[in-house]
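One thing: mind reviewing this one?
=====
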Amino acid sequence: MKNSNISAADKKMRRGRFNFIDVLIILAVLLLGAIVVNLFLPSSLFKTSSTEKQLQYTVEFVGVDEVFIDKINDNDTVIDSVSKYGVGTVMAVDKSTPYTVLQYDNESKVGHLAAVEGKYNLLVTISVKAEYNESEGYSVGGRRIAVGEKLSLRFPDYASEGYCINLSVAE
């Protein structure tokens, strides 16, 4: 019967009261959310230490016309076309691999690789000092370097897109 003496306004005020326990609960939920986000995102909210390493990576340019195969030379400076940041120096260029396409023979019902005259696959090995971060891998000027990564690169006399096919740390 004591409840009948409490007015509707008093009940409404009790429901809307915000206290110290509510603040603790909200802080705990926010902290838990930050920890979950940190676990699943590749870039950590909490910075981890990074180290600098000498890196050599190989980029394959596919189907390059023979007119351009001599445009990339040893010791050329390599620039990332997107960030405009230097991403290394050319160490070696392999110009000997012909560009091939799959041709299907209807009579024998067999496919075979056929070289396309005047086109080559270039393998360009680049050396650079890169930062290594446990959560993100290798990067140069904020540009991630990883096997399978598509790179838009500029050389003094040539520009093209290729894929990183090899990566090694020079000791």
User: Anything to note?
Assistant: The chain has two domains: 2-40, 50-169.
